[in-house]
Every structure is written in C-alpha cells, then in structure tokens.
Amino acid sequence: MSDSPVSDSTLSASTAPGETASVRARPPRGLGLALLASELAILFRRTRTIAMLAALAAVPILIAVAVRVSSSGSSGRGPAFIDQITQNGLFVGVAGLILCIPLFLPLTVGVAAGDTIAGEASHGTLRYLLVAPAGRVRLLIVKFLGTVAFCIAAPLVVVLAGTVIGAILFPLGNVTLLSGDTVSISESLGRALLMSAYVSVSLIGLSAIGLFISTLTDTPVGAMAATIVISVAAQVVGSLDQLAWLHPWLFSYHWLGVVDMLRQPILWSSFGDNAILQLGYVIVFGALAYSRFVTKSILS
Amino acid sequence: MADRSLRRWLPAIVAPIVVIGGALAVPLTAGAAGVPPEKSAQEVLELVGSNEVTALSGTVVQTSELGLPDLSGALSGTGTGGDSASSALELLTGSHTARVYLDEAQGARVQILDSMAERDIIAGPDGVWFYDSSEDTATHLALPDDPTGSAGTDGSQSDATDTVPTPAALAEHFLDAIEPSTAVSVDNTSVVAGRSAYDLVLTPDSADTLIAAVTIAVDSETGLPLSVAVTAKGQSAAAFSVAFSDISFDTPDASLFSFTPPAGATVDEQLPHAYSLSTSANGEHDSHLGDLAKNVTVTGDAWASIVELPVGDLAAGASEESADPSGSASSLLDAATEKVDGGRVLSTSLLNVLLTDDGRILAGSVPVALLQAAAAD
C-alpha cells in the first residue's frame, strides 16, 4: 500500500514536480489490486481532484441558492427542471447534473484522464513504475480504472450535494416524472442515483480517449486540453443537422438521454444503447492506448 | 524488431474494424434466423384480418421526408396554447419516437418522447388525459355519462385505441382502400423490431396520384402490421413511415392506464358533449371541425381522391387565428405555402393542399394541376 503518498500542496498546475505519486514505496505484486488501491488513494487525496469535486458540488449549491434568493420570477425560461426546484428540493440534484453534463463533467474527466500516463511521464515517475514488475499493460488498466472511479465519483458528488442543499433550502415531496406520473421520495432518490450511474457510463468513452491521448505525450496539460477540446468538438458536431449521419457514432450522442431515467416506465434501452456505445469507445481507444503504450520508448 | 512492433499495433488496427463492423452488421443479421413460409398476397391479407393482438407494448418511430420547408423556427413561436394545427405540422416534419402501450381490456397510452420532455396521451377507465411535461399541463376529457356503464366505457376505449398512431391503425386505413385499382403483392420477407415479417406492397394503378407505393410489413406470426412506409413518386426513400422499433405482446402493467395529474400542474377539464358551449379556443376549433365534417365533399378515385372543404368555416377560423396578436398562424401559412393560379398551395411529396382565393380548401395526393382543375369545376 502507499505508505506515503506525496504531499500535494499545489492545486494549480500539474507541472509542479513531486506533486504526484512519485515513488511508491514497495512495488506491488499479485493481481495489481494493491497497485489499483494505491492509485485510487493517490487520485482521491490529490488536491486537484478534491478541488474539482468541490467545484462540481458547488454547481447545484449555486443553483439552489440563486433560485432561493430570487424565488419571485418562476416564469417558464430555461429547462422545466429549474422551475420545479422551488416546489421540490429533490430536483436540485437532477438540475445540477443536467447542467454539468455538457461542460463541467467532461472538463474534470478530461483533466483526470489526460493526466494518467502523461502526468507520470512528466514527473519522471513512469520509469520507476515500469521498473517495478507492474508491467505496462497492468499499469494502463490500473490508470484506466482510476479514471473510471473518478467518472463514478464526479456525477455522484453533484447529485448528493444537490439533494442535500435542496433538502435544506426547499420543501421535499413526491416527484413528478416527465410522463406525468408521481413517485415517492425514496424512489426518486433511487432515480437520481440511476441518473448518476448513467452519467458515469456516459463519461467512460471520453476517459478512454483521454487515456489514449495521455499515452501520446509527456505533457499532461496538453493531453488534458486535447481531451476537453474533443469533448466540446463532439458536441458541436452533434448539434449540426448537416452531419446527422455521424451523430450516432459520437460518444456524446446519448449524453442527454439521462432524462430517459425520468420517464415512467424507465427507458432502459437508452441506458443500454449508451453503455454499448461507450464500450465501443473503450475497446477502440483502449486498443490504441495499448499499442501506443507498449511500443512507446519510455525516456522519463 | 519491426515485426514485433507491428504485432503490437495490431490491436489498434483490429479493434476499430471489429467495433465499426459489428455496429454496422448487427442490425443486418439480426433477423437471419427463421425465414417464415412463403405466402401469397391473399394469404397475407387474410393473416392481417385474423390478427387478434389485444395487448402490446412497443416503441414506434415515425419519420417524414415530405419536402416541407423547415418550420421549426416558425413553430416554436406557436408552441403555447395547444394549437392543434401547429402540432399536426410539427408531427409532419422530422422524426419522432413514441412508446405505445395497448390493452383492449384496459385502455391505451402513448408517450411521445421529446428531448428533455414528454407528451402523454392516456386513455383509461376514467377518460382520456393529455399531459405535456414541458408546459406541465394536463387536459382531461371525461367520458360521457352512459347508463349502460361498461358498454360505454368499452366503446370509448376502443375508439381511443383506434386513434393511437400505430402501424396497425395506419395499415388498416390503407388496406380498407384496396380495390381493383390497386396491385397487391408480397415483395419478400423482412425483419421489423426483431420479428420476421411479410412485406405487403400496395401499388396504385392510377397515374394521377402522388403515391408510388405503400409497403406494409406484416408480422409473420400474429398478422399485426409492424411498419407502414409510403413512397412518393420520384423518390426512393419513404416519404412517410411508421414502424415499431421494438415490440412485446405481453399485457402492459395496469398502472400505466390510470393517470392522476401531478400536483402543481395546470388541469383543464373538458366534457366531450360540451364543445359547442365551450368558450376556449380549442373548443371552438373542434366545433368548426365538427361542422366541416358534414360539408366535406370527396371526388375522384380512391388513390387520386380530392377532399374539398367548402367556403367559409375554415376561412373564418383561419382569420380568427391570424387575428391572434403574434400573427404566427398567418406567417406560418405564408412560409409553408406558395402562390399559384387561383390560390396558394401547400406542396409536399405526398399531399398537395390548395387554398383557393375564395376560401375553399382542396387536398389530395394528386398533382397541383388536378386540384386546380377540381377547384375550377
């Protein structure tokens, strides 16, 4: 286990030397579970990760406070979810999640995924990780699983923060679904968790792309920026009617399908289609990352 | 060394091919299993007639390529107020997905799945509900009081189930119109919603109609029409199609057919017999349509028939609409129609509508010239 993850006091740049996992005390053996545990511990103790999760949590909190302060004008501007917040605090988490999908969540995932390999390379720690009997394939898998863990944590933080602040500032009640049916508070909490899971799955394709880009370069900032740009570009392409034939192939195609979890009955096929699409991206970019990483000459 | 490097790049080359190939091939090979026995057109027609499906749930995808101008900009302005004309036009452009639940014993429910929103029509034991999530409005159409109770309920429910826009309902409409002027053939078998189906092709003999062919895919087991595609002359792709993308014949859950409007929603109660008394815009609109139905004249043969609405009623309705402050209805009309001799014409690949200068409306799946000739008669 990581006895001493290096203290990381700097939030800002990824370039500060010694910020990340410099030296893992004992190279782990066995199935790589120890390596994974150490990776997760370093990832979630890193100041940058905590700051990103805190920023995500701030989104629903800002929404809730803004709506609470200016509760006068509830005319039908913006998504219907925001109008419903004043009647039911449980919508805060959902509204926050939907607002975060196009930009904030891909942004944080881009940072987490872009840093995976390039971050170690830029700190000169990649060499030591590979000297240990970890092996390149296993390191790649562990890095990917670490990003997946971040994909799970990020939307969950938004939903939980939103639900808590909504419960504090607004009355709670039964939730009206898009179909007009009403479900109990407990079921609506289950639906919110399901939406969080949907968004986690949605982000996995992007994190595979980020992992691949991260193997291409030794500059983590470049890999992060490229991943984020790709996520924005995919959504721009997705909004152009002239490229409609391409839309089903974009990893962002099903992103807003998260609202299908708010229909009665739940549109499970949407969840399944999304999962298959993301799996395709994981296979393609996982293979690309593998080929690139095992052929890469590690100089740092 | 080069060999080894090449071998390591192999996954990066193979994976995209496998994934893209798989994504393209799976829909094509999904129905490779089980080709149904060959049937003649007559046998397939009998199969449709013997269809006894009483309950189903499925997803219906409707697409239109009618060549209408893009009205989304003009329509967005008319979204409020449940303007039936604009919502009908909206359904004629682009594609829509709806979930359909049918149970003859209980009722029907249609959910039009919009992005970030949903429109529901629920026909159940307590009447017909219409719910729009983007407006958070619910409209309730109560059942007429009927001393015979259950009989009345059954009647209205089957009415409601008939109006559900399933491929079956549309197919019935076309099959009713079969007559000597239509050639019926079974093209081949196809796979719709994962089920093998016979493709019944109706080809009008008439040279006057815009319809080239109507293709109905009939489920080989139950005889239920699974998809209907209407092809216009001069087009290879279907101009209008309604098809199940998945279907199950299990009885849907009974809770789907009962509806309680959510707290906070605007609820509008309407009585079916009270249209003429209703002062709401919708009520007036419907009463217009009711009067119109008596005055409609139909001329021409089945496929090339022309429907004519007389002077007055609708023109009055239209002028009322154009008097509405935004003026959106008239601008919509101007955007969608073009000027021809004797009036304005709304031209699509399947249907032409002529609005004559004296206020009559002629519509039919025929060329504009025939509409003009009919108007001159």
Automatic annotation (TrEMBL), chain A:
<feature type="transmembrane region" description="Helical">
    <location>
        <begin position="90"/>
        <end position="118"/>
    </location>
</feature>
<feature type="region of interest" description="Disordered">
    <location>
        <begin position="1"/>
        <end position="24"/>
    </location>
</feature>
<feature type="transmembrane region" description="Helical">
    <location>
        <begin position="50"/>
        <end position="70"/>
    </location>
</feature>
<keyword id="KW-1133">Transmembrane helix</keyword>
<feature type="transmembrane region" description="Helical">
    <location>
        <begin position="139"/>
        <end position="172"/>
    </location>
</feature>
<feature type="transmembrane region" description="Helical">
    <location>
        <begin position="192"/>
        <end position="213"/>
    </location>
</feature>
<protein>
    <submittedName>
        <fullName>ABC transporter permease</fullName>
    </submittedName>
</protein>
<dbReference type="GO" id="GO:0140359">
    <property type="term" value="F:ABC-type transporter activity"/>
</dbReference>
<feature type="transmembrane region" description="Helical">
    <location>
        <begin position="225"/>
        <end position="246"/>
    </location>
</feature>
<keyword id="KW-0472">Membrane</keyword>
<feature type="compositionally biased region" description="Polar residues">
    <location>
        <begin position="1"/>
        <end position="17"/>
    </location>
</feature>
<feature type="transmembrane region" description="Helical">
    <location>
        <begin position="266"/>
        <end position="290"/>
    </location>
</feature>
<dbReference type="GO" id="GO:0005886">
    <property type="term" value="C:plasma membrane"/>
</dbReference>
<dbReference type="Pfam" id="PF12679">
    <property type="entry name" value="ABC2_membrane_2"/>
</dbReference>
<keyword id="KW-0812">Transmembrane</keyword>
UniProtKB/TrEMBL annotation, chain B:
<feature type="compositionally biased region" description="Polar residues">
    <location>
        <begin position="150"/>
        <end position="164"/>
    </location>
</feature>
<feature type="region of interest" description="Disordered">
    <location>
        <begin position="139"/>
        <end position="164"/>
    </location>
</feature>
<dbReference type="InterPro" id="IPR029046">
    <property type="entry name" value="LolA/LolB/LppX"/>
</dbReference>
<keyword id="KW-0449">Lipoprotein</keyword>
<dbReference type="InterPro" id="IPR052944">
    <property type="entry name" value="Sporulation_related"/>
</dbReference>
<protein>
    <submittedName>
        <fullName>Outer membrane lipoprotein carrier protein LolA</fullName>
    </submittedName>
</protein>
